[in-house]
UniProtKB/TrEMBL annotation:
InterPro entries linked to this entry: Bact_Cytoskel_RodZ, Ig-like_fold, Lambda_DNA-bd_dom_sf
Organism expressing this protein natively: Candidatus Woesebacteria bacterium GW2011_GWB1_43_14
Name of the protein in its database record: Transcriptional regulator, XRE family
Single Gene Ontology MF annotation: DNA binding
Keywords assigned by UniProt, alphabetized: Membrane, Transmembrane, Transmembrane helix
Claim: Nucleus is one of the keywords in the record: no
Amino-acid biosynthesis as UniProt keyword: no
Gene3D superfamilies attached to this UniProt entry: Immunoglobulins (2.60.40.10), lambda repressor-like DNA-binding domains (1.10.260.40)
Amino acid sequence: MQTIGNYLKKSRLSKKLSFEDIERETRIKKEFIKSIESEDWVNLPEFTVVVGFVKNLASFLKINRTRALALLRRDYPPRKQELVIEPIAMKVFKWSPRLTFLIGIVLIGLTVVGYLGFQYKGFISPPFLEVKTPYENQDVYEPSLLVTGRTDAGATVRVNNQPALIDESGEFVSEIEISPDTNSVEIKAISRSGKETMVRRTINPKF
């Protein structure tokens, strides 16, 4: 069976040409020409370069270039790339005093940042305010009204612009005087930064 190697070799010998003669005329290294004739594909460059070599050789030797390329494509084996799997070195984790120190520093830093963030949020945000009594549209049968509720610790509370008593947990209480014409109560919580939260409750005097 004719191969690309013996096809080129037969043409070269019939014209009594040496490898040096062809190298001089085509600028293709004689080592590559020898490898093509012996079909030593390992010592040749990539396939597209070999195709160029065969085209030039076919033109120089005045042989059928289409046939030469067809033989090359049939005979040239696909190169297989070997997959090299390197073993993964497993590192043994070791606890050390230095690691303990670093983790401690990180935890302290996160705690401080979290605390400062919480304090800053509390400083710039209006205070929490929950009014327990009176409830909305509550009927009142006497000229005094007990106002109770809860707010942030450290905030102050005013009921109808009068200060309310407040404990350390934020629970507050205030007893105010009302008249038959009083139809609402205004409860206001004020933070240390001056931010305010206000709740207004409607009442119905019945005395």
